[in-house]
Design a protein that fits this description.
Elements (H helix, E strand, L loop, with lengths): L2 H13 L6 H25 L8 H22 L4
Helix pairs in contact: 1-2
Amino acid sequence: MNYVEKAWESYAKAVYPPNISAVQRKECRRAFFAGAHGLFHTITGFLEPGAEPTENDLKRMDLVAEELEDFARAVKEERA
């Protein structure tokens, strides 16, 4: 399963007009994946050692989720 690709397709469908150029689509996809890559490494870098998530891990994940939801709302409201 390609989770990031599926997320990209959903995002692109929701955000971009159908007549976006191939170059724009390619560059936007690259930016999307670069952001996903950076976020993945940020998250894996701040998780505490061990198999089970700690309270700090969960709190950090909640903060990331909140930040991303805030940004999504800003995009929908054309504030981002």
